[in-house]
Amino acid sequence: MQRAAAATSRSTSTAWNAARHRGSVPSRVAAASFAGSRGNGAAAALPLRIPGPGGRLALSLPLLSGSKAATTRAAVAAAADVPLPADDACAVERSGAGGLAETAQLGVMIAAWYLLNIYFNIYNKQVLQALPFPYTITAFQLGFGSVLIFLMWATKLHPAPRITPAQLAKIAPLAAGHMLGTVFTNMSLGKVAVSFTHTIKASEPFFTVLLSAFFLGETPSLLVLGSLVPIVGGVALASLTEVSFNWTGFWSAMASNLLYQSRNVLSKKLLGGEEESLDDINLFSILTVLSFSLSCPLMLFAEGIKFTPGYLQSTGLNLQELCVRAALAGFCFHGYQKLSYMILARVSPVTHSVANCVKRVVVIVSSVLFFRTPISPVNALGTGAALGGVFLYSRLKRTKPKDA
Questions:
Q1: pTM value?
Q2: Cα(65)–Cα(86) distance, rounded to whole angstroms?
């Protein structure tokens, strides 16, 4: 019996070696290998495209990591009844820990995104109350971000992009929309409460559906249209009962929605696949630098040069405190927008939209507590209805067909 088992083992080993030398594998190994590559091939081609110092992909998290590749090899080995190498066995054991680390890293990024957005709204509101010049504040914020971007490129923290004049010409209209959207947001924040501005900005899905239908020919489903009802109704109810309401603040926030969503929709139409030559960080960086260059002549035309030590001293403002808060607002503005792009590179657009809805709730509650904004029950109901509609819209977009 033992001699028969040994003979069987030797014949199996001989057949395996012969098949390997002939360039073929047993059918079970081939089938398992084909199934593994077919199931993971698409995912393996989706890295995050965030190079680190020295050209290394410090933040790159391809969907098929080494541990997942080891898991595939483990499946092949199991199908072939061959032992798993020691390093692959350890990698399989570490695969769960790698997923937890990635989830924890994403959670830290989202928390930082929320905190920077909260502090931006607080500092920005304080600066706009002392210096009500939205064009000047916008130029300062975009200029502050441009300085950080050039430092990032100069210190090789991120490689500088190679961009053609044709690409710049296509990105320029998007930069103009980004700049004007920021101007109108600052204009609204200077006129009404932070919570009210963000309640109005919760109507962004309405403009997304409208502009997508007009420019891209996308027809929304009845469920998606139904989710817009609580959004529009909630914004209207909050507006009617808002203590700080004025028409300039209201229409400025609405114009900001229109411009930001025009930027998002037109980016699909104008850029097509050409933005794939740029990673997410560099695309955002070029948008910021171009927006700053466009904001300077607009600032000079609309308000002149206001942000000077002589002018600020003549107003009796605390120059040092104002400059510190303006710089902090500029840092938070640039930081939370860059984090938004980085998070979008790691999650689906639907998940990002839901996280953005939660972020708006956090910002509204934080601003109400910090500025002690009076909120009536009816006003809170309208705000809640609008935010609930945004959440419902985000969830319904998940079930929408890709070709719709």
A1: 0.69
A2: 18
